[in-house]
Amino acid sequence: MAAPTVHQLDAPTHPASHHTVWEGKYVCAQGVTGLHLELDTASNGATTATFAFYGVPENPNPVPRGSYRLRGKVTMAKTGSFALALELEPDEWNAQPPDYMMVGLSVTSDRERRSMAGRITNPSCGAVKVSRVN
């Protein structure tokens, strides 16, 4: 008896989307704020993200929880290493606290892509730093 014919489909060389989760902090007018960032990056570098913020103990001012979506692109960093550069612009609110606005970010990863640091792209804001949790 002949073995059944098996047809193998060529698998894509890159997944359709790569999902990562990052945790860290950033500074804006309200002070130091916690950040949970989820990224979905397509093989062409197009990226969508969820930016969720919340209060942290080192900030004595109350910071409400909120979240919104961003869109942007991942590219190789100009340093020529394996680091990535990520530019994200605000897109749409998921949960908007009163008197809060969406902000973008511009960050670069470390060589191992385990952390990212840079700036929030609003003049009333400053540094952002996140570490990869998955």
Q: Could you explain how this protein is built, in words?
A:
An 8-stranded antiparallel β-barrel has the order 1-2-3-4-5-6-7-8. It has one domain: Beta Barrel (Lipocalin). A hairpin with a 2-residue loop joins strand 1 (17-28) and strand 2 (31-42). It has strands at 17-28, 31-42, 46-54, 66-76, 84-95, 105-109, 115-120, 127-132. It is mainly β and 134 residues long. The model is unreliable at 3-15 (pLDDT under 50). It is globular. Helices cover 0% and strands 54% of the residues.
Helices and strands, with pairings:
Layout: E1 17-28, E2 31-42, E3 46-54, E4 66-76, E5 84-95, E6 105-109, E7 115-120, E8 127-132
Antiparallel strand pairs: 1-2, 1-8, 2-3, 3-4, 4-5, 5-6, 6-7, 7-8
Keywords:
134 residues; mainly beta; Lipocalin; 0% helix; disordered N terminus
Global mean pLDDT: 89
What is the count of helical runs?
Answer: 0
Task: Please indicate the percent range of residues in DSSP E strands (runs of 2 or more).
Answer: over 45%
The level of helicity is under 10%
Please give a quick description of this structure.
This protein is mainly beta and 134 residues long. It has strands at 17-28, 31-42, 46-54, 66-76, 84-95, 105-109, 115-120, 127-132.
